[in-house]
Specification:
Layout (H helix, E strand, L loop, with lengths): L4 H9 L6 H9 L10 H6 L3 H11 L2
Helix pairs in contact: 1-4
Length: 60
């Protein structure tokens, strides 16, 4: 399991509008705000804080 994955999922799970597919898309879609990287890439690079901030923005 990726370090920080549980934290990001906890943030995403707070938004009842996000179904399972929306959560999967969050991790796999490249984001312009992340310079074209995916939140999954951030977690793989050990950038938990950046991934959590992206999840907060996504869940708003």
């Amino acid at each position: 399991m990726l370090d920080g994955l549980e934290d990001v999922l906890e943030i995403l799970n707070q938004d009842e509008r996000l179904d399972t597919w929306a959560k999967i898309l969050f991790f796999l879609q490249e984001k312009p705000s992340l310079e074209g990287r995916r939140p999954l890439d951030l977690l793989r690079e050990g950038k938990r804080r950046e991934a959590s901030l992206a999840a907060q923005a996504y869940a708003e």
